[in-house]
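User: I've been trying to design a sequence by hand for this structure and keep getting stuck. Would you show me what you'd pick, starting by listing the structure so we're on the same page?

Assistant: Good idea, let's start from the same input. This is the structure you sent:
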């Protein structure tokens, strides 16, 4: 996000920044959304099968995934139409939710993940890093 913030120029044409943002999202946004889809479809069902008491945690994380997906999808249109300050606030919001999400996920699931065995599991597919 700092890389994108550094490219925000109030005087630069929005199309120029939108192009830069598009290149960023080809890598980062696509990878993050793929990772979250893999967690939702592969990892979370496995966790819940072994730890049904974690339903509230998983639901919270899935809601974060949906919110981040919407914010990232909105990023391109925001980049074309928003002022530099509005764009910075949008990026700040994305970053704040990501920080909160990853911190919560780590606090709630690290022990569960550490205890999981990976026999007969495609770890890359489970975490969306294929």
């Amino acid at each position: 996000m700092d890389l994108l913030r550094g490219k925000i120029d109030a005087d630069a044409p929005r199309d120029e920044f939108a192009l830069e943002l598009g290149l960023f999202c080809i890598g980062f946004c696509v990878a993050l959304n793929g990772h979250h889809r893999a967690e939702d479809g592969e990892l979370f069902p496995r966790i819940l099968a072994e730890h049904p008491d974690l339903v509230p945690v998983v639901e919270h994380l899935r809601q974060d995934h949906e919110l981040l997906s919407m914010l990232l999808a909105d990023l391109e249109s925001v980049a074309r139409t928003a002022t530099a300050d509005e764009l910075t606030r949008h990026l700040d919001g994305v970053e704040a939710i990501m920080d909160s999400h990853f911190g919560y996920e780590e606090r709630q699931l690290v022990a569960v993940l550490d205890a999981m065995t990976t026999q007969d599991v495609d770890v890359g597919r489970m975490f969306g890093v294929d």
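That's my pick for every position. To get oriented when you compare it with your attempt: The radius of gyration is 17 Å. The chain has a mean pLDDT of 80.
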